[in-house]
Amino acid sequence: MHTETLQQFYERTKQPMPAELASQTNVSHFNVKQRTCLNRMTPYNRRDYYKICMIIGDGMHLAGEKETPIESAGIIFSNPGVPSSYHAISESQTGFYCLFNDTFLLNSIRQEIRYRSALFNPAIPAVIQLDIAGQERFRYLFSEMESLLSTTYAYRFDMIRSLLQMLILEGIRLQGPVTSENTNDRLISRFFGLLNQQFPVDSPENPLRLLTPAAYADQLSIHVNYLNNVLKKSTGKTTREIIHERIVEEAKTLLLNTDWDAAQIAYTLGFEYPSHFNKYFKQNTQTTPLLFREQLRQSH
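Structure tokens predicted for AraC-like DNA-binding protein (300 residues):
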């Protein structure tokens, strides 16, 4: 199954390639545009970026093996790991879309929020039908992001991240509660509470204490397999994957916002040797910590 990159998206849609994508890898990227339907059907594939698309028109969304019709208006939260496509049915197709990568988010959305959204959790349906009031709310948020992106204001991306989080939270509100047993909900809440207590890391003298699924299960007084099963069912991710994602996000934040060297960051995040941290970071980001820091600071 092909995975479309951001660069390939711009090539496929015949749009100018953003300068940062043409010259560097692992850079922060965000874009928002009004939607015009040049192709009646988008390719069925995975992506290495997130995309939120507000559709005004009739169409059919295919994700995995599930088809979901959109009648008049809807919004699609596309999870990068789920192969999907959209087939336009009505002639009139308008709306907005935004796309961005993990580097742009940089820890701005808490994990317990992430796993309530189809954007990050493949277990949740991607399509939400919109009534008139919903269309107006999302149109406002997209328009504000579009307006900010066209400015040179120094903190425009910080404001865009806030609007993006509002957009994601509004989607969670409209989709309604995720069906789950109350005892499981409480366990998930306690797990993320424990996870969040460890972050952000504020000093190399206070390294992470809980590093493994077993350590979290012990704190929650449950078997590690039970914790893993509950989280996998609710979030689509294993306990280990969730912990690793949070550690990688914290590593990115520390590389961008502190002057700590790689050895200090490695120790703080629970790695005995800097070489282990370098290998771990590269496996998860396809770049080294120092190169990531250099590229990100150049783009800010």
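The chain is about 50% helix and 15% strand.
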